[in-house]
Amino acid sequence: MTIRSLMHRLAGDQRGLALLEFAFSLPIFLTMSLAGAELTNYIITRMRVSQIALQVADNAARIGSGSQLEAKKISEADINDLLIGSGMQAGELGLMTRGRVIISSLEPDPNNAGKYRIRWQRCGGAKTGHASRYGAAGADNLTGMGPAPQITAPADGVTMFVEVYYEYQPLVKTSLSPSTEMDEIASMMVRDRRDTSDDSKLANGNNNPTPQHPNGVYKVAGVTASTC
């Protein structure tokens, strides 16, 4: 068999053509499939983080003990339960390991008309490097919290502002997901009257050495405040 006849025979041979086409298309198909799975997982995870922020804000607006005839008191134990609950709600996401939850009490600033202050702030989660982007406890003369339009508080009430930061764990590869950092916020106005009394100062103006409800949060024996 001459070389010319062999080349002619090979040119007309279509055996293995489908396998060759599959080999060329497999990397493209696999990349598209993995990217689709990664994007779907990212969207679901982000939605869950957003729902956690909303649930924590809603729960923070409802907590408190007391009858309907008196302003409800909140304690460090109540706030700690909120943070523990957020971790349980996150389930396999591991929010307390891979994220940070920040709860802020936004209230009218008595020293600046029409402005607001962060009366107290509590945090939970191992990502301690994530501080609030909108102000720390004690910040005052604020126009509100959050990106525009900013969240404010009613003239005689309290708004609970929650920030949830989460480090996304990709299914396959980081480059296939939009980002690895998730930031979600939510807020809820406190529905019932809340006891915001402060005993950090004595009647003579001096600091109280043993305050029981500084900044409106009551202490509980054996409970450590989840300060930021």
Please count the helical segments. Answer: 4
Largest sheet: 4 strands, antiparallel
Structural class: alpha+beta
Instruction: Provide the residue-averaged pLDDT.
Output: 87
Protein name: TadE/TadG family type IV pilus assembly protein
Please tell me about this protein's structure:
The chain is α+β, with helices and mostly antiparallel strands. 32% of the residues lie in helices and 18% in strands. The strands form 2 sheets. Strands 3-2-4-5 form a 4-stranded antiparallel sheet. The protein has a two-stranded parallel sheet with strand order 1-6. Strand 2 (99-108) and strand 3 form a beta hairpin. The longest helix has 46 residues, at 17-62. The protein is elongated. It starts with a helix and ends in a 10-residue tail after the last strand.
